[in-house]
User: Which sequence fits this backbone?
């Protein structure tokens, strides 16, 4: 998925940006958006156009972004109102525009992050971040996490299904004790999994940090 | 709990970002020294575990409310404070990047609240109570109390960060609301953490992180170890009581004073609100009282439920006593 | 090195940290180039034994107790000696002690039962290159080796995929590629055919049959043993119960039934 998107970018632009540059562009853009003045539509619109261009290049499905944004806005809307209440601009512009522009900023920041991650994918982000100075400990842990997120997620889903299959109560309201027991079991399994993975790494001569196969963060 | 982008002011973002960065790099250097290879793998699978565990939803039956484990104290109890904080940091980064949950620039604040306060302060509280009570009961009640207080303290930290972003006049209001909302979340987190820890204590007690206690400890040594925990607990209680002083306060100095000398936070002098922003005053008072009551009741509930849950350790005589008994 | 046996195990004992005895004095030797099956019921100690063969067990206990041993020159009984982990295993004449571990782990390739335990990188090719990179091979050379090994298990076209997008059988073969990339002289396989569908099992067996190495396979798949391994070691309750030619051992009904196994179908007609 992500490599497809990256390939598309490189074909369309005929330049391939260094992962590190892409990774640095993300926070730069987010900073810019957050620092834009509240209540002025034009700079925000300009940032939106730039971002829309990037989204188009990335090939990410805008519906995915929209759904994600809507899901988060339910929570964020409340905070936006809280923030707007304390902004001095409220006196001149009124509450509505201030809330709207805070929401818009948030949407732009969110879209920028999700688009970047879609283009690079987590493993390449970690590698690029490492090239930019991220220490070994978190970098290696992040890579292990990315690999086992799916494995343990499936395990968790399997356990929930099995519980449901044996539960006589209707609905999803399983007993807290049962659910916590499941989490406890999942914890024990994850820990043991970690120990086996560690053993498997030692078996292939591991020395404590994930080796890099790529020549540099570019591909 | 995840602060999105656009809520905090630039100054607050910088301050929280720098302190989070400092805390994180200190944690990494601590981990670098101690059995690095295995910790790196375990932190990876444990962060994956937190994601998987968050798929399990707990519903509060008659209400349409559901929540899930946050996991900060659980990670700290199982892996130790520094690895626990790193695990939560990884979870926060990935939630931000993959799901847009929590803002990119607010990552520092979120890590400060949930990673550093959640795991480090949580661990300090856990250790103090565990050592005071002792045995598996101590581990259980300690982790529950730590989960409870660390959620409250994290919410208070958010309130302070929010207030520092140009809302100083509403500090105690925000604090009261945040604390009130988080008594529910905190109770849930305490109960889930307790149930999970209890399960692990019964099945694999050896997995619980336990750095070697420093030999024959003197009373002074114990007091030194317990002092930060006591202070953190006091701060947690102060969060509930501080809003009672609502009309009197006007800023961070006052609150930080309260955080350090919590016992003074009790009765307050009723003075007319000095700031025009106090439209919610009438509401504010009942809310402050509600927060204080909820906080104290919640604290009692956490310890009560913990004591009830730990009965499983004493009632089952057949259960082999774990090595944890010897540690204390 | 050629006159040393590939694997030599002497009075190997091991206790789990919780005190249960897993191995109670194992003795056997495997010559270079042999293909040996290790059979026995669940809990017999097979997997524990395999983890000893490249020094993952007894783990840190060994190091710390070895230390204390060298410091206190006390005479110990044989039992204590082996639980303390004095070298009870030699790989090609090399004792398993800390300073030999890198070399031992290069020589012994260990295939785990669950491929997800072993495919810990975020893409297949990185995983296969993991071993060579740790051995200090350059990146371009590691990539070349990885692709070559993936071709051997016919997974070259999946090199850039994430392991969780592969089927179980593909993951299993990717694990094998990862081990082959370390060019081990000895391959130790834990249940290589478990959970594979018949075609996947066939394919995996064909791969093993082609390998030019000393091979030790722990398995319940006795049909595979008959096809691949001339010799079988039967393990139960941490002891070697029988050791001999596979066809003879696997047709001994009383022996097999006493240890929770049954005669493979292909041998029954001969009875």
Assistant:
């Amino acid at each position: 998925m992500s490599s497809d998107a990256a390939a598309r970018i490189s074909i369309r632009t005929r330049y391939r940006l260094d992962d590190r540059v892409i990774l640095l562009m993300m926070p730069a853009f987010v900073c810019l958006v957050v620092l834009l003045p509240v209540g002025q539509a034009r700079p925000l619109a300009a940032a939106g156009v730039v971002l829309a261009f990037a989204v188009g290049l990335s090939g990410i499905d805008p519906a995915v972004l929209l759904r994600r944004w809507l899901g988060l806005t339910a929570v964020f809307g409340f905070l936006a109102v809280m923030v707007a209440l304390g902004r001095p601009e409220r006196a001149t512009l009124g509450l509505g525009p201030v809330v709207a522009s805070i929401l818009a900023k948030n949407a732009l920041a969110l879209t920028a992050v999700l688009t970047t991650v879609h283009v690079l994918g987590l493993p390449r982000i970690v590698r690029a971040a490492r090239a930019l100075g991220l220490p070994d400990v978190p970098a290696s842990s992040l890579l292990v996490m990315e690999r086992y997120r799916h494995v343990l997620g499936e395990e968790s889903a399997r356990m929930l299904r099995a519980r449901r299959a044996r539960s006589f109560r209707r609905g999803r309201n399983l007993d807290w004790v049962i659910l916590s027991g499941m989490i406890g079991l999942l914890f024990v399994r994850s820990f043991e999994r970690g120990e086996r993975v560690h053993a498997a790494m030692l078996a292939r001569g591991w020395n404590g940090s994930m080796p890099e196969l790529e020549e540099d963060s570019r591909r | 709990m995840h602060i999105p982008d656009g809520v905090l002011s630039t100054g607050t973002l910088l301050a929280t970002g720098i302190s989070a960065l400092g805390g994180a790099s200190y944690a990494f250097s601590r981990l670098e020294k101690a059995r690095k290879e295995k910790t790196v793998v375990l932190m990876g699978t444990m962060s994956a575990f937190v994601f998987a565990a968050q798929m399990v939803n707990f519903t509060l039956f008659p209400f349409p409310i559901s929540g899930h484990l946050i996991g900060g104290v659980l990670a700290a109890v199982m892996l130790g404070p520094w690895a626990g904080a790193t695990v939560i940091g990884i979870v926060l980064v990935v939630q931000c990047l993959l799901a847009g949950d929590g803002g990119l620039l607010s990552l520092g604040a979120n890590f400060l609240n949930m990673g550093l306060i959640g795991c480090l302060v949580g661990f300090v509280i856990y250790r103090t109570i565990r050592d005071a009570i002792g045995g598996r009961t101590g581990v259980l009640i300690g982790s529950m109390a730590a989960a409870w207080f660390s959620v409250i303290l994290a919410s208070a930290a958010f309130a302070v960060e929010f207030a520092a972003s140009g809302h100083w006049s509403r500090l105690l209001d925000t604090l009261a609301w945040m604390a009130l909302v988080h008594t529910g979340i905190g109770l849930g987190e305490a109960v889930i953490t307790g149930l999970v820890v209890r399960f692990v204590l019964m099945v694999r007690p050896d997995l619980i992180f336990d750095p070697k206690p420093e030999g024959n400890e003197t009373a002074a040594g114990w007091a030194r170890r317990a002092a930060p925990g006591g202070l953190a607990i006091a701060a947690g209680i102060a969060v509930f009581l501080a809003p009672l002083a609502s009309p009197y306060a006007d800023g961070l100095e006052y609150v930080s004073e309260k955080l350090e000398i919590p016992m003074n936070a009790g009765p307050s002098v009723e003075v007319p609100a000095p700031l025009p922003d106090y439209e919610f005053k009438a509401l504010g008072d009942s809310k402050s009282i509600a927060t204080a009551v909820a906080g104290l009741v919640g604290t009692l509930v956490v310890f009560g439920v913990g004591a009830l849950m730990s009965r499983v350790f004493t009632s089952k005589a057949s259960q082999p006593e774990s090595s944890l008994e010897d540690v204390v | 090195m050629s006159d040393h046996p590939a694997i030599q195990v002497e009075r190997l004992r091991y206790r789990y940290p919780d005190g249960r005895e897993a191995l109670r004095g194992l003795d056997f030797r495997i010559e270079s180039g042999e293909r040996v099956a290790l059979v026995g019921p669940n809990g017999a100690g097979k997997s524990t034994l395999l983890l000893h063969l490249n020094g993952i067990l007894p783990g840190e206990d060994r190091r710390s107790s070895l230390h204390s041993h060298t410091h206190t020159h006390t005479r110990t009984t044989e039992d204590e000696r082996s639980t303390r982990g004095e070298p009870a295993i030699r790989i090609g004449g090399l004792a398993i002690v800390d300073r030999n571990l890198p070399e031992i782990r290069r020589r012994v390739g260990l295939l785990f039962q669950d491929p997800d335990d072993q495919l810990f990188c975020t893409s297949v090719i990185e995983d296969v290159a993991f071993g060579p990179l740790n051995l200090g091979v350059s990146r371009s050379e590691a990539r070349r080796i990885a692709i070559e090994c993936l071709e051997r298990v016919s997974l070259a076209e999946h090199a850039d995929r994430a392991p969780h997008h592969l089927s179980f059988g593909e993951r299993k073969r990717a694990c094998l590629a990862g081990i082959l990339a370390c060019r081990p002289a000895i391959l130790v396989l834990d249940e290589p055919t478990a959970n594979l569908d018949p075609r996947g099992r066939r394919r995996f067996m064909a791969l093993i049959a082609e390998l030019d190495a000393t091979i030790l396979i722990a398995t319940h798949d006795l049909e595979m043993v008959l096809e691949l391994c001339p010799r079988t070691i039967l393990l139960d309750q941490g002891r070697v119960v029988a050791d001999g030619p596979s066809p003879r051992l696997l047709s001994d009904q009383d022996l097999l039934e006493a240890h929770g196994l049954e005669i493979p179908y292909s041998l029954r007609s001969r009875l």
